[in-house]
Amino acid sequence: MFPFAFFRRLISRCSVAGLALALASGVALAGGERTVVELFTSQGCSSCPPADEFLTELADKPNIVALTYNVDYWDYLGWKDTLATAENTKRQKDYAERRGDGAVYTPQMVIDGIEHVVGSRRGEVERLIAESRDESRVTRPSLSIERDGRELAVRIGGQGLAKQVDATVWFLVVEPRVKVQIQKGENLDKTITYTNVVRKMVPVGMWRGQDLEITLPAAEFVQGDKPHGVVLVQEDHGGPILAATAIVSLGDE
Known about the structure:
There is one protein chain. This protein is of the alpha+beta class. It has a single domain, classed as Glutaredoxin. Helices cover 18% and strands 37% of the residues. The chain has four helices and twelve strands. The protein is globular, with a radius of gyration of 18 Å.
């Protein structure tokens, strides 16, 4: 769906020209600081539905990017998760390895790629979200996205940061709502609505602390019924999420 040759051409179009380069008639889609809440969940997990509902509430709050990752390691319990991928499971395990605590469970919420908590513990989640706004915790670049016709311009500002970072710019294809009727396993006969389901994570550039602009063909990231999109700047190997922003719609213009 996204051949290697396409990404090689895409990366070659990245320009470290700074933020002074602006698109004529561009329309800003999103911007500003965001706290990223990632929920690792499973359709085969009886304790997950309350966390799934809580994530839906968080997704409606300003300055929060809420994402759902269905994992596959509970499939043996009798119901194969229809949204799960091995990539989602690996992402969760990468976080655990980076933290060094080996904590891989559902429902698990990870805040800005740093802290984790049981996803149904509302008070703890809200406390971690509040703490994530402390700018002393991580080095945060600026991040904005504009659309001009068929192109998306992703701009990252280094702001003269002295710290050397090894980070990847990720484009996430996200489906806003998915309703699933569970027919076996621990959630038998339940209908669960999942919010902002991550369907695919695509690396579109590397960030080393400099001003960076990446031009993307918008149509390449529209799959199915016009899913939403999210851009993350994240330190490699399960590190902190340094910046994030959401695109409300990627429909054709």
